[in-house]
Amino acid sequence: MGHYNTVLSLLKQVHLRGVPVDAFVINIEINCYCHLNRVDFGFSLLGSLFKRGYEPSVVTFTTLIKGLFAQDKFSEAKNLFIKLLGEKQIKPTVVTYGTVINGLCKSGNTKIAIELLRSIETLNFEDEGMVYCYSMIIDSLCKDRMISDAKNLLVEMSKKGFSPNVFTYSSLIHGLCNFGQWKEVTELLREMVDRNVSPNLRTFNIVVDALCKEGMVREAEDVLDLMIKRGEIPDIVTYSALMDGYCLRGQMEEAQKVFDSMVNRRLQPDIISFNSLINGYCKKRRIDEAMYLFKEVSRKGLNHNTVTYNTMVHGLFENGKCGAARELFSEMLAGGQSPDLCTYRILLDGLCKNQLVAEALSNFQVMKNSEICYDIDCYTILIDGTSKVGSLEIARGLFNEVFARGLQPDACMYTAMIGGLSQKGLMDEAKELLMRMEEKGCLPDHITYNVIVQGYLNRSESDEAIVLLEKMLAMGFSAHASTISMLVDLLPTRGQDPTLLNMIQKLVPRT
């Protein structure tokens, strides 16, 4: 399946040899081009139809509409469909309507899809086609997080005599899982069985994956047992989800058992399986085991992807192996694997935390010269990093560059800049930036307040610090333990200052 280029190559030979072709063959050719995202070539073949004395059929137009939607040409697809309805020479089938409804849903036009569904309910199309249309909309509503509407539509289709199929139920189960509505998931699974609709592998995988992401691995194991009893054989997706669940809980021995059981069942672990396990070991600071698996990927004939490298580079940095992380990043580039935004965030953060700011700035420049769309997080990392090594002017330059590029700083970036100013003792400028931050509609968080308060306390300016602490408490934020400790350290120099004592009493939690 999917050998569209091969089919087109064969058809080219047919044309070159002058073998006559009919409308059926030309429609196949149009379909191939549409699947290859060359709907323009598909339209050009309409001329071949007319030239050979054929008229485009409903299949021709349905294929072209599907091709337009596949290339996100929503307006053109809609206009072609409206033209088809208006001319009334070709009567759209339920497949045509289903194609349009699917395209509308995938392009974020679920409301229009529902209106179209309403318009065809009286056309007496066969049940299978109508179930497909309902199912597409239910799936779209779930993806739009409109679960109540999806449930209502399921009830409605049943009342109108259209029996939901396994895809319909699976879509709604997926939506319910995303909202953690486990009771309703169980009820829907029971309803499926009562209606003789057997949950398939996809259904079970949806539930297993959702449970594992919620940390409910034991419940996921129960679902796994149930699916085996019902004759569904778990696949690589099932075991990868279960393994990921154990990794999220830090239960690496259990995760390794799942990985080994995959191998024992002659399932070849894919790169996603390896990535999950590598990530789990990195988070548990078992970096040697993570590196062993990283090397095992190549030994198994698999290719590392960007996620594999990102996970491993991050793990090395987090475990204090800065040199090894830099070497691995270089290896990534040498191997032809393109870094993404996440890669550069990890690299910049790791370098800055190891005071290798110049190298971080150099890599940031490489990133800016590439096609990667960098964001404010990269700037925040560099502003924080340059500030902490005392390069305040570089931090200022980066901060101003953000505005020059039309980006809007968030609370983290403002906090990093305020921290840099506070570290240099430029408290008036830090306070001014705090006020400007609020004026811009970016509200300071607890970290922002603690940073600037500590700046004042470092200069023994407790009065200014207490004013900000009062404001911070009024906003429902808490002081960090390090902030409270700095306040207490001022007591010997301030004596029995009632304002200072009162603030300490407010900040220290009562036991």
Fold topology:
Layout: H1 4-16, H2 23-35, H3 39-44, H4 46-51, H5 58-70, H6 74-87, H7 94-106, H8 110-120, H9 127-143, H10 147-159, H11 166-178, H12 182-194, H13 201-213, H14 217-229, H15 236-248, H16 252-264, H17 271-283, H18 287-299, H19 306-318, H20 322-334, H21 341-353, H22 357-369, H23 376-388, H24 392-404, H25 411-423, H26 427-439, H27 446-458, H28 462-474, H29 481-489, H30 491-494, H31 498-507
Helix pairs in contact: 1-2, 2-5, 5-6, 5-7, 7-8, 7-9, 8-9, 9-10, 9-11, 10-11, 11-12, 11-13, 13-14, 13-15, 14-15, 15-16, 15-17, 16-17, 17-18, 17-19, 18-19, 19-20, 19-21, 21-22, 21-23, 22-23, 23-24, 23-25, 24-25, 25-26, 25-27, 26-27, 27-28, 27-29
Features:
elongated, 511 residues, mainly alpha, 0% strand, 31 helices
Number of strands: 0
Average pLDDT rating: 92
Net shape: elongated
Q: Using the CA coordinates, give the radius of gyration.
A: 31 Å
Percentage of β-strand residues: under 5%
Explain this structure to me?
This protein is an all-alpha fold and 511 residues long. The chain is 74% helix and 0% strand. Helix 7 packs parallel to helix 9, helix 15 packs antiparallel against helix 16 and helix 24 packs antiparallel against helix 25. The model has no long low-confidence stretch (mean pLDDT 92). The longest helix has 17 residues.
Can you summarize this structure?
By secondary structure, the protein is an all-alpha fold. It is 74% helix and 0% strand. The chain is elongated.
